[in-house]
Write a structure and sequence with these properties.
5-stranded parallel β-sheet, alpha+beta, 23 helices, single chain, 18 strands, Rossmann fold
């Protein structure tokens, strides 16, 4: 554990803690932060970080800028007046905050002594012990007559409903007198009807009380409640007078404003009540209302509610989930890392990937030492896996709700990678950059599909914002839903825009240019760009890198017609031999490298 200011870096679990709250970080983002924290108070050059974290892969230094922007956002740091990460112009970075080692026992939220961890049954819930303890503490506060409201937030599939199910299981074992009722908001339905989820929950209340003979006029009162909002509050408080009542409203982002206002009113009423209200929602869903967000923020400021943010699973928790699903302690080598990278720790994605791998026979049952166990059919390095079909359908539904232009913007962004700059989308669509930026900004505010990831300073003196897809699966679905011709046209436009932006310095981005020409199937321009990149690497004495680029050019040249290919391959071999002699320490005399393809 390494502590700086109010943050603690948990090396074992690869996560960050802030004031007792766990912040999950993507694997590479965690690695960047760890390297900074482990080397405080000194200059860390771009090359040092790249060599340490990407030892076998060529990565543009501008990638580091994106990671630093994301880390500053998480740490609440200001690049102009840094408390944590200081930029040393043109050279690198320095971690300027004091760092000290701390014991792991000092991190996290201290458990209430009244709440026993043994009371919690979490056999189907992995990595959520802290959240369960928090909910149990809120139940105890409600039992003492202090009404509670808690918002459980997180993306789709992150485990909000599973958390509530686990609480219910724990209550059945420890607090049999507590009563939990649930109402569900339904997209397109509950948005149009007053108190839709509350009436569903009240129906369950009245069924319970009618069975016990405690409310003889239950059905009549149920019909009248919808017309009397004040009576809704009074009835809930009446039911929560003698025993704890837990009212759950799921997917409140789809609720009518009347439901949101009533929950707000219940949270603000001062009379004692053994009432715990739990509302779940997706904060980045396009249907999440400003009214809901402002209400929650106002209640948080007044200390009238609690928020539990459900983060993606950590690597150890994901490994535990896989072991539970496959019913074996030792997993196939590399499986947990592969699933973590592909799922980003979303439990729904994790399980969907496992089922998909089993269905595709990438994960098979084998008899090993007289024991049946799951093994990989092929190595992780050779494995190619598509988006599971059920997840792809869910993502398609989200995309189809957007306007045609918004869909095209996201499709153009997918031509880059999981992170994409506005200038590239503008080039692919042949649209005005400002208009594209406005569309991306709107998508970030209204949906959970993209997030702002910083900006980049371009060679022409302009600045372009970066956005990233919330998950790699979104990017893959958006890429595959385009026709081959449309993708090719977009890739070529991006390559041409790169050349225009870096005119006179094309060698700096020749690798990126080659990637887009190759994706478009333009083999001649791909080879030209790769040779230009090799020449640039040669000039920087990066001979191994130059060799890789020329070998790639040879592979691409095999796709060309015989007339073009024969002479071209000979020229590339000459260039390759030149570089290999440089590596061997023999400087050839007066070799000319790539003369024919100086311009591409």
């Amino acid at each position: 554990m390494m502590q700086f200011e109010s943050f603690t870096l948990d090396i074992s679990n690869e996560c960050l803690w802030h004031s007792g709250v766990q912040i999950s970080l993507a694997s590479k983002l965690f690695s960047v932060l760890r390297y900074l924290v482990e080397n405080p108070g000194r200059l860390i050059t771009h090359d040092e970080i790249l060599d340490a974290l990407w030892p076998t892969t060529y990565v543009q230094p501008q990638v580091l800028r994106t990671y630093m922007l994301e880390l500053r956002k998480i740490l609440g740091d200001d690049a102009k007046q840094p408390k944590f990460i200081k930029t040393i112009p043109t050279r690198g970075y320095s971690f300027v905050a004091p760092v000290k080692d701390v014991a792991s026992s000092t991190v996290g939220v201290a458990s209430d002594p009244k709440v026993s961890r043994q009371d919690v049954t979490t056999t189907e819930l992995i990595g959520r012990d802290r959240e369960i303890v928090c909910l149990q503490q809120l139940v105890q506060l409600a039992a003492s007559g202090h009404r509670q409201l808690v918002f459980i937030t997180g993306e789709a599939g992150i485990g909000k409903t599973s958390l509530i199910n686990a609480l219910r299981g724990a209550l059945d074992a420890t607090s049999p007198t507590a009563c939990m009722v649930r109402g569900h908001c339904v997209e397109g339905v509950s948005e149009k009807e007053d108190y839709y989820p509350l009436l569903e929950a009240f129906g369950q209340c009245f069924e319970l009380t009618d069975q016990k003979g405690e409310l003889a006029a239950g059905s009549t009162r149920r019909r009248n409640l919808q017309d009397r909002p004040g009576e809704l509050c009074e009835t809930l408080e009446e039911l929560a007078r003698e025993k704890v009542l837990i009212l759950v409203v799921e997917d409140i982002q789809w609720a009518h404003e009347s439901t949101i206002e009533l929950i707000s009113a219940l949270a603000r009423r001062g009379t004692p009540a053994k009432l715990l209200m739990i509302a779940t929602y997706r904060p980045h869903d396009r249907s999440t209302k400003i009214h809901l967000k402002s209400m929650k923020q106002d209640l948080l400021v007044r200390h009238l509610c609690t928020e539990i943010v459900i983060e993606p699973l950590s690597k150890p928790s994901l490994k535990q989930l896989l072991s539970q699903r496959l019913e074996q302690k030792e997993l196939p080598t590399g499986l947990d890392g592969f699933i973590y990278e592909r799922s980003a720790g979303n439990p729904l994605f994790v399980l969907a990937l496992v089922e998909h791998m089993i269905a595709e026979r990438l994960l098979v049952r084998k008899n090993v030492k007289n024991e049946d166990r799951w093994e990989l059919h092929t190595s992780i390095s050779e494995m190619e896996i598509s988006v599971p079909s059920e997840l792809a359908k869910l993502i398609e539904l989200e995309i189809d709700r957007l306007s045609p232009l918004e869909q095209r913007v996201l499709e153009a962004g997918s031509l880059m990678n999981i992170a994409f700059p506005v200038w590239a989308v503008s080039a692919a669509l042949d649209e005005d950059s400002e208009h594209v930026e406005e569309l991306c900004d709107g998508l970030e505010r209204r949906t959970g599909l993209v997030r702002r990831a910083g900006h980049d300073d371009l060679p022409n003196g302009t600045r372009s914002d970066f956005y990233s897809f919330a998950h790699q699966f979104y990017r893959e679905v958006l890429y595959q839903r385009q026709t081959t011709g449309r993708r090719a046209k977009g890739h070529i436009r991006i390559a041409e825009r790169l050349r225009a932006l870096f005119v006179g310095r094309e060698g700096d981005v020749s690798r990126e240019i080659a990637i887009h020409y190759e994706a478009a199937g333009n083999w001649q321009r791909t080879v030209c760009a790769l040779r230009a990149g090799a020449r640039h690497s040669h000039e920087r004495h990066a001979y191994h890198e130059s060799t890789q680029l020329l070998e790639h050019a040879l592979r691409i040249a095999e796709n060309m017609g015989d007339a073009e290919r024969t002479g071209l391959i000979k020229e590339i071999y000459v260039e390759l031999e030149t570089v290999r002699k440089m590596i061997a320490g023999t400087r050839p005399q007066q070799q000319e490298v790539g003369r024919r393809f100086d311009v591409f």
